[in-house]
Every structure is written in structure tokens, then in C-alpha cells.
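ok here's non-specific serine/threonine protein kinase:
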Amino acid sequence: MGCSCTKGIRIKSPNPKSKPQTLKLTPESFITSNSKDFTDVYTMGTPLGSGAYGDVIQVIHKLTNQERAVKIFLKNKDKHKDSSYEKTKNEIEILKKLSHPTIIQIYEYFEDEKRVYIVMEKCYGGELFDQITTKKSLNESVSALICKQLFSAISYLHSNKIVHRDIKPENILLEDSEDFINIKIIDFGTAIFYDGGMMKELSGSSYYISPEVIQGEYNEKCDEWSIGVILYILLCGNPPFAGSSTEQIIRKIKAGTFNYNSPIWDSVSPQAKDLINKLLCPALYRLSAEEALRHPWIEEKGKYPIIKSPILNSVIENLQSFNGLNKFKDAISTFITSQILEIHETKELREIFKSIDINGDGKLSKEEMVKSFACHKEILNRDKYIEKIINDVDTDGNGYIDYNEFIKATINRQKLYSKDNLKKAFDIFDLDSSGKISAIELEKTFSLGTNKDSIWQDLVLKADKNSDGEIDFQEFCDFIENLSDKDFLIN
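and the structure:
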């Protein structure tokens, strides 16, 4: 581990008469409203773009020196009469609940009298729109990979009762230049929680809006229509419903007729055209994202690159050694993986997750893991082995391993608990910048409510070797290093 310790500490056993307390933390637990002034925490950088309800700017976190992106929404003077303010708050609530490799990650948010700030991860490859403009069209394999990721994300959103409603190339970012295997859907400003009824609000962008949205009565399949438009553009460089004005484009979308007359379509496979036809059709007959993932063209052309054995072996070893972390250590791991690690540090693990997620639903089942690890003959009694891994790694108890759980369990432990990462976490916990962490600061950071104060008081008591009532950085490192799975268990 990166934080060296010269002497171990003895952890006292909890009072057997005390009532067990619960420490159940997910990445959402740390996505909270930061009460500090935004400019006290971040340094403003260059503009990155604009979304449906705000501008996006590059920023640097002053404590960790990490680059992030912030979406800034300017509030109306009377926020109670400002529907766009409510949409911004709704966007935050939606993003907090999402854990998928193809959906942008939120870190925290701020609000002052004039603005709301949503801090998210920064991608470095620009918009998919720019790639289309530059390259004019993409080959079928790249197009299928892009659409496979979009269908996976939309399938995941729809299964969680969320509809994006503005899928377009401008809202799809590449993590790095020409990295089509790692894309991110952004801008959830028009996204909505969906109860299964019909939506009526006009929402979306010309070229990509579905005919039923224009008509004013639609369901979640408006997102699949938008992906169909994107696929058409990816393969030929032009939209299926073009026009010199928004009115003309809308008329063509309502008519629903498009063609493959351009010579470029002569070299496109019938399977690709079949998928487009099954997306750019009336909603009643349109494929769902889940069905589109099983389309022969996606299955044949949209295959992720084969993961090299050493990397996969490392993932298996880390999964095997995860073994149910001590509750507090698990909380620290969750914090570092969701709030500290940068996008490039988890790239390989993200690609492995997507390759294991055979049905593309954004979570790993026992069956998918058994199939993915079938070639590893050294794993004996594979079913019980995988079942144990899921039991250990499945923090939220839903029977699957979701994306954040997978990253936390497979990241290299030395990297995870490096001195640099622990220092970044420590500095964020140290809310008053005193160089020490108090029980009150831990309680505020972990947001469990005031009825959990004794958890943090007990923790400080165990970690505080010099008995000054707080934890300094070396004590923090020593405590994390010496925690075993039997120490400081909180049921």
C-alpha cells in the first residue's frame, strides 16, 4: 500500500452491549450539495460547450488538482416560478442514481442565489458530432460499437424508469480522441422519471425528435428513434430527414419517409439497413433498446476488442481477494472510486465490464460472469466461485454487480489506497482545512444523519493514537492500512 506504516495499532472491539449500527454507503451517498462557495472549491477554466439549460466549463478542483466539467445554470429571480430550475434539480436527482459506463458521472453540486453548479467528469475527446463532421461517415464496425453502447445505456435508463428525450451526437462525448469504445451520454436537462404512461411535453432536438413526440403523445421509445437517426448519420454522413428549415425537417419526420438512394448506401450491409428500418418506424413496431442489442447486426459488428489475458487475470484476482471489505474500508473504497479516481484510471476496467455485460443491461449477472470466465480452467467449482464474488461485491443487494461495484472490487488495491489517493480523500474530509478530521466532519461527509454520530465518534476513538480527539493524516493512513475484515465491523 502506498501509505507506509511503521507500527500497527490495536483496534478495540466494539462494546457487545451496544446496538449494532448500519453503515451502508453507495456512490450516491457522496453526491451531495456542497455548502461552500463554488469558487472556493474550484478554479474556473475554459468553456466546453452549452447544454439545454446551461453552459459547461472546464474547472480544476483546488484540493486534488483534478480536471472536471461544471454545468452552470443561471436561476430566475423567482425560482418557484422557474420551470427550468426544477428541471435542473431533476437532472441532479437523475444523475445521482445512475451507475453505467456510458453515462456521465456526477461528483457534487452547488447552489447560490444566482446559480446552480453541477460538477461532472470531464471527457477529452470532444463531441461525437465533431467526429461525424470531420470524417463524414464511419464504418459499420465503429458505428455498431457506438450504437451498442447507446442501446446499453438507454436500456439501463428505461429499466430504471428514466427517459433521456434528447439523444443526439452533440450529447455524446468521447472519453479520448477517436476512442469510440468509450463514449458518454451527457445533458440530462430534459430527462424525466417515467411511470409508464404517455408523455406529452414537446422535448428534443430537430433532426432527432420522433414523430410521436411532435404529435404530443409518446413513450420511452422516443430515445430509440433518436438512436436510429444517429445510426443513419454515422453510416452516410447525412440525416434521414433533412431540410432547409426546422419546419421542413418536422414535416419530413411526421411523414416518416426516408431512403437509401445515396451511392454510399450501396456498400452498407442489409443488416444495418434492417436495424435502421426497425428504429425509424412507428413506436408500436419500433425495437426497444433491449431488443436492438440482440439484433444480428449489433451482435456481429458491435463486438468489443478481446481483453488481453493478463488484464483479465488481474481482474479475477482482485475479485477473488475482495472478500467483503471491512465496512469503513468499503466506504473509503466507494468514496475513492466514485469521487477521486480519474476517468483514464478506470478505462481498461470499464472496457472489461462492457465485454462481460453480454446482454448490455448495465449490470453483471451470475450467468454472464460464468460465461466470461469459462476459459479460466484454474477456477474450480465456477458457479459457487461466482456466487461468492457476487455476494461479496454486491453492496446494494440487488443480486447483480453494477458498474461502480465492479470498479471498486477490481481496481488495483495499491492504486486504490495509494498515499496520493488517501491524501485527496483526507483533504476532502477535512472540511475546515485544519489538517485533522473530526467525528463531525466525517458525519457531514458520509451524510448518514445525526442519529449515526456515535459511528464516527467510535471511529475517531479507534484511529486517534495521540488522543487529541481528531485524526491527522498519518493516523488516517495507519488506520486504513491496519483495518482487517474483523475490525470495526458495523452491521
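+1. Residues 140-159 form the longest helix (20 residues).
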